[in-house]
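Dear support,

I submitted the protein below through the web form. The confirmation email said the job was done, but the results page showed an empty box. After a refresh the structure appeared. I'm attaching both so you can tell me whether what I see now is the final result or a partial one.
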Amino acid sequence: MFFILSFIFALAAIIITLKILIGYNPEIALKWKCVISGMVVFVWFSPAVSRFLRRLHLFSSDTNQLISKSFYVFFITAFFLLCLLMIRDIFWIHGYKIAEKLKKASATFDPMKPSAIKKANIITVFLTFFLSGYALYEGMKFPDIKETVIYSEKIETPFKIVALTDTHITPLSSVKRIDKIVNTVNELTPDIIVLVGDIVDAKPNRLKKKMQALKKLKAKYGTFVTLGNHEFYHGSFQWEKKFKEMGFFYLANDGLMLWKPHVYISGLPDPQLLKINDVAMKGIENTLKNAPSSAFRIFLSHSPRFIQKLDNTLIDLQISGHTHGGQIFPFHFVVKKFNDFVAGLYDVNGMKLYVSRGVNGWGPPMRLFAPSEISVITVSPEKKN
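What the results page shows now:
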């Protein structure tokens, strides 16, 4: 059903794009109409073409991944073009009608005039490439450091957490970039570092050098990790073993009490993927009850909406990822529909929830109005009047 709906959507998008670009402009030569039509059809079906090429096993897995990312950039560029064309025509046509009623319309800007359409199309295509280039830049640039402060009467001295989510490390990832992320995090001198899922996008034996770089993360009380959905796609048991070998504290419905800062940290592999039932939920609650009620209790869950299942007497802060902050506007609205939360700090039934936009994205290496981030969460003593 998903593929059928995707095909119908792509076909509709192709028809609308071609109708606006060349359908209303008889001045375009037939050969250029064929070229434009072929390009539009290709970019809209490029993800399917990429998938087909992978199944043929013509290239190495790394080359296939590079092709896939490139084709996704083409696809998103086509999506930007469609959106800009439709938004442009809605405002242009209705604006011109209003101008006609006010007797201020100019034939130069008539939306049905071929010369006006041609100029408008050239400008729109230029804007599309500019927007696509900007989204590519935002997706590939080094993540921002996003600082957030939470106040709690359970904390006597500030407690600094650095959260890395959705790093999506692949065989094509740059070791130099990972080194830079690790050095940046270490320079922040965190009390704890938390890796909240979708850290990797390949099996451990393909990411040896990358994990050697990531292993250098240092925090006062250690690095804590739990799994996201992508670790399950590439061998969750293998990654559990690997993270433990790297010296990280692996959390799978268990927790650890840090007595000096009086903080309890626990976590769970992606609960949305595990589809937690009532029996499993009881087990999670029993684990959380091991924490002293006077401790500041942190819970790691890749999926943010899981906080809605938790009792507000059992945790104080949940840290999550998964959403990428929507990654590419206007997909923010789709992300919110399926996850309830998109990015930033929320108050949920008296509990705090922080959803990180993540260090990297997935699919196209692009971001629009959803900048990547290294999340720094400082829990400070509650302000007194």
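Response: this is the final, complete result; the empty box was a page-load delay. The domain at 144-381 is CATH 3.60.21.10 (Purple Acid Phosphatase; chain A, domain 2).
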